[in-house]
Design goal:
Number of strands: 12
Strand order of the largest sheet: 4-10-9-6-7
Number of helices: 0
Order of helices and strands: EEEEEEEEEEEE
Structural class: mainly beta
Oligomer: single chain
Helix content: under 10%
Shape: rod-shaped
Strand content: 35-45%
Amino acid sequence: LVGVPATYRIAQLSGGSHTFEVRAVDSSGNVDPEPASHTWTAAEPPDTTAPDTNIGSGPSATTMETTAEFAFGANETGATFECSLDGADFAECTSPQQYTDLAPGNHNFRVRAKDAAGNVDGTPALYPWTIQAPPDQTEPETAIDSGPAEGSSTRSTVATFAFSSEPG
């Protein structure tokens, strides 16, 4: 087609340098020995994929330890992290993250990664565990609340006592 421009749409280019070349072939089969060339650079597409966060280690699922340490990471190099303990707001943290003086009961540690493009893991990694209270080591006190008067003498063959101690 002589003098008729042609348009080509090139989609889904990767970022980097690209070159488009075209040459004419006439109706007699003669080929242009030097094709026309155009070189340009396409920008890298924006990173819209959030990183995936993982927890590598933490305390036993049930423990009496009141200190907990967590090691975690992400599938993207250079990610930063935010941690939350027991539903608190997320705050910047680094691995390993340690918590001390924790109370007995159920706990939940959550961590999420944020990549250099600002994408945040929408499903933070979760680590639930329970701290059991240590067993009671205090000996109970026993008290006699009522009974025959101490040191008294009685002719009765029946004695009734009331006594108490700590619950349980």
